[in-house]
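Reply to dn_fold:

You asked what the input looked like. This is it:
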Amino acid sequence: MAAGHDEQFSPRPRTTRAGIARPSGSDPELWAVARQLDALDHKERAFFTSAYDARRRSTWSMELAAFLFPIQLFLLDETELGVVFWITGGGLLVWWVLEWFRTPRRVREYNLAVALELLDLLELLRRGQGAPER
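and this is what came back:
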């Protein structure tokens, strides 16, 4: 095959310009985050990366928490659900087992929410409005 033919069918880069892994699924929110990350300048990217790394949750550590000492709901900001979980004894242990399989999805949703919140904050700062009040 000709070199040009190989290049024509080469896959898309696996990372954004920011060095963040491109989403592998078809979730439009993940692709929107990837596009917004590509548009950030160096300082904004550094802020985003440091803030995101400080707040994100690791899937394997949350799965370990779900298995050994089920506190993952509290760590993923689902406090009310965590209280109900503990009051019902993990749904008589059935809910506890189900959480082993639900935790990865909950972690992805939490991390996506963190990324979107940080991108919104950067947009506010870019417009000169300052940080939102809490």
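The CA atoms of residues 95 and 121 lie 36 Å apart.
Hope that clears it up.
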